[in-house]
Predict the structure.
Amino acid sequence: MGNYIIRRLFQVLITAFIIVTLVFIVIRIAPGDPAAVMTGPAGDVYTYESIRSYMGLDRPWHLQYFDYLKSLLVMDLGSSLFYTKPVTELILERIPATLELAFLAVLFTVLIGVPLGIYSSIKSESLLGKIFVFLAYSTQSMAEFWLGIVLVFIFSIKLGIFPSFGRGTVAHIILPSLCITLPLLARVLRFTRTGLLEIMQKDFIRTARSKGLSERNILYGHAFKNILIPLVTDIGLRFGWLLGGMVVVEAVFKWPGMGSLIVQAVTSRDYSVIQGCVLVYSFLFLIVNLLIDITYTFIDPRIKYD
Amino acid sequence: MNYSDKLSNDGIIKETYSIIKKFKRPVFLIGLVLTLSIILLAIFAPLLATDPLKMSSEILKPPFVSRSHIFGTDQFGRDIFTRLIYGARITLLVAWTSAIGAAIFGSLSGSLTGYFGGLVDNIAMRILESIMTFPFIVIALLLATVFIPGIETLIIVFTIIGTPSFAKIIRGTVLSLKQEEYILAARALGNSDLRIIFRHILPNCFHQVLILVTLQISRIIFVEAGLSFIGVGIQPPFPSWGNMLADGRGYMMIAWWLVILPGLALLITVLGANLLADGLQDILNPKSSGIKKK
């Protein structure tokens, strides 16, 4: 177990190194010159040169690369030209809001999606079960940000129940978390349902039935345990999607998280902020995947990674 | 006609019948119809509609009122129906081209590295896995920002970020196919490695590529709409469902159709692609079910 975690950590480090390098390359091969963008059309050569040397762009590539790696090691992501603040500080301010939203969305998804999935697999022939599946299909095909706009239209503008943007009270978080939750919930519902329907055909379920166990016992004691691993894997894989979907949703609701930060940075071409956000997003995703792999060992004691 | 001819004819009829029966699934058929109708609308856009950029004095006309503007008009008096189907043109062009591009690059790199294995395979897989750790839209944002926004950029960006998922799946299939006896037989007959890959391995991966292409298309349509909504995708005045939503948002209070209709177009298209993918999955991969990682 300990060995396994160390090995996985090592793998994560290698992936992180590749990500860091890829981001460096992409930003450097870009056709636009960041220094020229920041100087603006009105700037003179002197300003341009001083910005260039301030950003270190006048130095050879390999030196720039080593400087970049060195500064990353001490968590220095440069400073934002738009906010005139260190990027690390900016991101640390924004991360809690993003994680809060993501955590709530996953919590709602699991609390609502799994029971609904179980229900629609037991009652797969009933009307309500079919309605759930139909709703799940269509919600899954909705763009989160469109859902956000429609929810704002109904609940903020027409009914005036929830505020349409910002963060602060409980009422503020309901609409944004709802539009991240719904598509994910639809996915989890269908996943649980198909998984259970398939497991219920298996021989060991027939055995359990023939030895006289109650349906309830079969479902929770035998069938459900078997879909936990694929379910956890899937939710983990979706976490990347979740973060991605949240970028635009945060922008719609002006939610002060990393998503609206990166959108703002994209419109103002604030390269150091974009670079910092991309790195942090990827690391979040890496860490979540690592945690999921470790969770497996708790869900299924048969899995031993040595 | 003698007896054996009749028998083989019957066999063919029976086989065709069973193939047709296999495809007669509501999920697949609904998905196919939705997808095909959007594609047809997009292809015949110039015949069905006027100029998507033409402004007129009839601004913010509600839908289903006037015959010349069946879906109403926007704040510049442009016909919404026209803009929607021209938007479909751009969106589908981007989605199909980049999904197919990613399928080609992914299948080639996945099958080559998987077949030959070794150090190159290891390094290639590490790099692909690292690309997959970026959230799709975040890397798209990064690339779309550093390059000049537009259709070509979007196609290149989506091809690059789509490639790893194809490569990974194809590589997995190749690794298991490599052990099959018919591959051994092909090698014993003296076929070259490349011939084995192209004649014996890739055709057996085709159904998986097909399913992944449809899934990829719905994914790209989402991300493209998101990027255009933020302003780094398709640039106005050219219509895309994403930038139509962004434009219409300011008029939501007085003109609901400006945000509802592009969103519905997006919903129908993505629903079609999702249903098609699920249907294909059921038909072509009956053994695997939703529980496996797609």
About this structure: Chain A touches chain B through 55 residues (CB under 8 Å). The CA atoms of residues 56 and 280 of chain A lie 22 Å apart.
